[in-house]
Please model this.
Amino acid sequence: VQLQASGGGLVQAGGSLRLSCTASGRTFSSYGLGWFRQAPGKEREFVADISWSGGTTRYADSVKGRFTISRDNGKNTVYLEMNRLKPEDTAVYYCAARPGGSFDHWGQGTQVTVSS
Model:
């Protein structure tokens, strides 16, 4: 599966952005999907993930209550709605697909910059 992320940009603190990640491949609906981010000088970290059915979601503590992950299997797309953004949310955001036990497929990343 190939993943294409979009929706990043520059936003002021307190603002919102919605990231999208569209996948190719007929098996999209059977994969778990996730979002990760990597800030300059830091390791990539988990942000959120969602089960193949959309029935189970998980979030990093740092984004819980502010970010929402969702998916539309009909459109082969996973979303990350980001609200009340903070400067520390600045990073390159990556979407990933999990066909089995690990995230094996990665998109190219989209830059999110939050100004104070």
